[in-house]
Task: structure prediction
Amino acid sequence: MNETIDLLLTRRSGRARDMVGPGPTKQQLGTILKAGMRVPDHGKLAPWRFVVFEGNAREEFGEVISKAFQAANPEAGEESLAFEAKRFTRAETVVVVISEIRNTKKVPEWEQVLSAGAVCQNMLLAAHAQGLYGQWISEWLSYDKTVHKALSMDDQDRIAGVLYFGQMEQPQAERDRPDFDAKVSRWAAR
Ligand SMILES: Cc1cc2nc3c(=O)[nH]c(=O)nc-3n(C[C@H](O)[C@H](O)[C@H](O)COP(=O)(O)O)c2cc1C
Result:
């Protein structure tokens, strides 16, 4: 089968919590980010940006995450706070994709958000094509205002995805997929 089609039909997410190293090289990450930027984009607004976390930055940002968790859950125990502080260390490389809404009447907000979703998917595919695993997860922190502030997001911006990249010790098995015929209908001419 054509290599690209094969890639599209076989991509699987790896679980961030089970990821191991090595993560993407500088070059591989560059390719992942470039693929992310090459998405359909109504009005050429580029309504998204990327924040990359590698090395110590993952733990440094972990402090922000942990404090935000504590503020939202004052009853949280030491164990949960310690987990939150290490959340980004589950993978070698973490990229937060931010959907930045441009104020223009020409392109509806919904279309700008969809473009950011396409960014995330392109990045997963570029990782897969380079023999890496990726996982697109949101979890609570994507919706947390303290985290948004730390990422210098405007009020209308949203986190489209937190993407984790690394390797898996075992290839991921296939999962159930939606029934093809149940999802596809044909508009029949009368
Ligand atoms: C916007 C978005 C947010 C997601 N957030 C989570 C999440 O917080 N936790 C999770 O386990 N999976 C989340 N997923 C699902 C995984 O990324 C993944 O698609 C799922 O585990 C199925 O695996 P597959 O990609 O191999 O089909 C999210 C997917 C999308 C598109």
Summary: The chain has a mean pLDDT of 97. Residues 12-13, 135-139, 161, 175 surround flavin mononucleotide (CB under 6 Å).
